[in-house]
Amino acid sequence: MLTNIYHITYAPSTKAASLFFWGCNLNCKGCYCQRRVFSSMLGDCVGYNLQQPKMAIPPTQFLTYDQVMEILSRVELEEVTFEGQEASTFPFYGHLSEEISKRFASRNLLLTNGYELPDLRSTHKIGFGLKAVSDEIHRDYTGVSNARIIENLRKLYRSGKDLVIESVFIPGYIDLEETERIAEFISGIDKNLLYIILPYFQAGNNLWKRPTPDQMEQATNIAKRHLNRVLAFTGEEQLKYEVVSLFPDPVINEYLEDG
């Protein structure tokens, strides 16, 4: 059976693998996959400079179910992350996560936009990407209403799943005002939920700028008015451990072209 998995990475020191899925049910204007389809954790080994925006070529090689399991069997595993564009679009997500959990005794993490909730019985933690609370902004950014997504977020919280909520800070668009709305909304569910604020990197044909460290600090302080646990990144953090590509191996520069 062919999957929509096109990339697998592995961190030897943490025994953690990431499966990257192609295909999404949202059409985000700032989707990072417009800029890069392979993991940013691989750094310069793919000849990619974050200061020089490029347009990424969509992947053309996809793994079968058996190939995914064979590749994962080559390494020691304690955690597997399901990410990429949107892992929940894979029709057999529940079966794959269950088989991985059984075979490797792994802790499974799903990064999702929350538009569709797959079978999560073998998913142990969820990183929920909430684009915006204001429906008008969400529609403009993704092409769809956030009503279904917000209901699914509430449903996940009620289920007792280990849950982290993330949003991307975009100066002049999803900015301080919207970040505070997101934090206030989350506090209405649980003030102790972890909220992670990520910086926007230029992607696609957008005029938005990458936020400065000072802007990220402002966003953090505003969110902390409402939540007890807030973490923000500037995009300048140094990777603390090695990440390698298990597929394709090696990742080659011809997957990218100048934008």
TrEMBL record:
CDD domains: Radical_SAM. Residues 9-240 form the Radical SAM core domain. The keyword Iron applies. Keywords: 4Fe-4S, Iron, Iron-sulfur, Metal-binding, S-adenosyl-L-methionine. Pfam families: Radical_SAM (PF04055). It comes from the Bacteria. GO terms for molecular function: 4 iron, 4 sulfur cluster binding; catalytic activity; metal ion binding. Its cofactor is [4Fe-4S] cluster. This is Radical SAM protein.
